[in-house]
Amino acid sequence: MTDRLIALFILCLVLSVPFGIVLLFTGEMLLNFVFFWPLFMSGIWISGGIYFWLHRERHWRWSPDMPAPALPGNPSISVLIPCFNEGLNARETISAAMAQRYDNIEVIAINDGSSDDTAEVLDQLTLEFPRLRVIHLAQNQGKAIALQAGAAAARSEYLVCIDGDALLDRDAAAYLVAPLLANPHVGAVTGNPRIRTRSTLIGRIQVGEFSSIIGLIKRTQRVYGRLFTISGVVAAFRKQALTDVGYWSQDMITEDIDISWKLQLKHWAIFFEPRALCWILMPETLRGLWKQRLRWAQGGAEVFLKNLRNLWAWEHRHMWLLFAEYCLSTLWAFTYLVSVLIFLVGL
């Protein structure tokens, strides 16, 4: 607790110093930062996306008519699906996982103490799919515990983890595991989530966000070597790497951001595979979107504070760009808020 308070104090100092400098100058400088920072980062992300395409994506053969990717040695893959109150979605999710064209897979569904009919649905599905195994947890303990239970039961070294309402594309598992086989230093591979809830304007806006902005950000971060986070809804892990970092943390609200930083601080690389598509559900109301983004923001802050003390070590210098981007983006958010308040006061 003391470490967290000290880290929070340091974070306040880190953010307040440049913010105070801005306030000492003119309001015009403040407004310039508010206006130009998003433009600057957009230019960086677009440039990174173009570089990623020129050096990687344009050389990839990829079309719906292509056969399933061949994996050297035909290794087994374990697909982990933590489920909490997913009675309405479990059948569709597991059916999509079972429909992978790469056939050396097992699917493990973890019922995380659901209070609906998830347990009954999963048990029924085991009769339909011989390769499906189900783990029932007596009480809801969170996604991190559910994933750990699935990892402990998995027979494979390669784990593909998806949410209980996500639909894997038919070749997603193979595309996710391929970089793990190609490079022993890759500890995780994040997939490419696509939105399937499009009945409202909020849902359709997120289609563009995930298809363009988030994809460009991940491509750019991969270019300079570090990702702020994997996509928790679809990612693959090397079990050896998870063992090295102690698996998923139980006390983090966003286990995906936390495991990303844990792996990279231990010098495991994270790869982005845009061909590993996964169709996901997202909030379609402002209230739901606000709760989700607030959770993401809190999770990022928790991970930042947790690792702040160790980030200054020279061995972690490759994380400094992520550190700087996070600090400046957080500063921009507060600066934007202050500029709006100043405008309202001046009315």
From TrEMBL:
Recorded GO MF terms: acetylglucosaminyltransferase activity
Residue ranges constituting the Glycosyltransferase 2-like domain according to the UniProt record: 78-244
UniProt xrefs under NCBIfam families: PgaC_IcaA
Keyword Cell cycle annotated: no
Family: Belongs to the glycosyltransferase 2 family.
CDD domains associated with the record: CESA_like
Organism the protein comes from: Serratia marcescens
Family matches, as InterPro entries: Glyco_trans_2-like, Nucleotide-diphossugar_trans, PGA_PgaC/IcaA
Pfam family, one: Glycos_transf_2
UniProt topology in membrane: Multi-pass membrane protein
TM annotation in the entry: 30-54, 319-345
Keyword Membrane: yes
GO cellular component: a single term: plasma membrane
Protein name: Poly-beta-1,6-N-acetyl-D-glucosamine synthase
